[in-house]
C-alpha cells in the first residue's frame, strides 16, 4: 500500500477531516489517564525535522508520538549538517537510512514538505508542520477540533480570520478546512496584508473588522509576522491595533456564545489585548492542549493501519 501524507488541508475530503477529528476526540481521553501512553505505534520511528524554530508545534508532535509509544528523533537544522550546506535531499536520504516511518517537517520554503514527500527520496509518511507562508494543516485541524468542542459543530458557523493573512500559513489551511467542513469564513485585513488571488479562495474578505464581528461565531486573530516583513505593510503598530486589534470594547460586539482564537505566539497589545487573551472566551490554551490529541490522531491514522487514508499518496495524487 502506498504511503500516505498530510501536506495540505485542501487534500482532505469532509470524510477525511471528520475521521481525524473523531479520532482525536477518542484519543483526547488518554490525557485524563494516570498512564497516558498507548502501545499503538510501538516499534515505529517518528522524526521531527525542523528547519525553522518552533517550540509549540515541535513539542506537541513529540508528545503526541511518545504517547503513542513511538520512538522519536528530533532533528534541528541549527547545529546540524544542514547549517554546513547539506541539501534537503541528502538530509532525507539520511533519515531514510535511519528507518524513519514518519517525518514531521517544518521548512522555511513554501512547498518544502511537498518536495520531501513527492521527490521519491524517502518511503516515510510526511506530515507538513508548516512550510513557508503556504500551509500548516495540523494547526487548522486543531482549530476545527477546538471549535467543535466549544460550539458543538463547525458546519454553518461563521468564522472571521483577522490580521496578517499575507504571511499566514495558518490562515490558508484554515480557509480550506473550514470551507470543507461547511463553515463560512471571512478574511479581515488591510489591503496590503491580503494575498494576490484571495478572491479565488473559498471565503469572503473585508477591510473592516467592526461590521463583521456581530455575526461571528468565532474570531481568529493572527500574529503580525514582523520577521517576514521587509517593507511597511501598515503605517504604525498603533494604527494597526486601532483598526484590526481585538480589545475588550471590540470583543463586546461579538455574540455572547462567540469564542476568540489565536494560533500563537501572541503579540499582546498588538493584534490582541491581554484582557481578551486571558478572558473566558479565549481558547488559546485549549488549542495548545488539543494540538496533542489532533497530532496523535494524524500519526495514528498514517501509521496505525487505519482503513481511511489522509491526504495524498506518494505520487501526490489527491484522493
From TrEMBL:
GO CC terms in record: cytosol
Reactions it catalyzes: carbamoyl phosphate + L-aspartate = N-carbamoyl-L-aspartate + phosphate + H(+)
Pfam family name, one: OTCace
UniProt keywords, alphabetically: Pyrimidine biosynthesis, Transferase
KW Transferase (keyword) present: yes
Start and end residues of each Aspartate/ornithine carbamoyltransferase carbamoyl-P binding domain: 4-149
Residue numbers binding L-aspartate: 84, 169, 223
PANTHER family: ASPARTATE CARBAMOYLTRANSFERASE, ORNITHINE CARBAMOYLTRANSFERASE, MITOCHONDRIAL
Record text on subunit structure and interactions: Heterododecamer (2C3:3R2) of six catalytic PyrB chains organized as two trimers (C3), and six regulatory PyrI chains organized as three dimers (R2).
EC number(s) given by UniProt: 2.1.3.2
Residues annotated as signal peptide: none
Protein name stated in the entry: Aspartate carbamoyltransferase
Residue ranges constituting the Aspartate/ornithine carbamoyltransferase Asp/Orn-binding domain according to the UniProt record: 156-302
Residues annotated for carbamoyl phosphate binding in this entry: 56-57, 106, 136, 139, 264-265
GO MF entry, a single one: aspartate carbamoyltransferase activity
Stated family: Belongs to the aspartate/ornithine carbamoyltransferase superfamily. ATCase family.
Function, in words: Catalyzes the condensation of carbamoyl phosphate and aspartate to form carbamoyl aspartate and inorganic phosphate, the committed step in the de novo pyrimidine nucleotide biosynthesis pathway.
Pathway the protein contributes to: Pyrimidine metabolism; UMP biosynthesis via de novo pathway; (S)-dihydroorotate from bicarbonate: step 2/3
Gene3D superfamilies on file: Aspartate/ornithine carbamoyltransferase
Domain of life: Bacteria
GO biological process terms held by the UniProt record: 'de novo' pyrimidine nucleobase biosynthetic process; 'de novo' UMP biosynthetic process; amino acid metabolic process
Upper classification of the organism: Bacteria, Bacillati, Actinomycetota, Actinomycetes, Catenulisporales
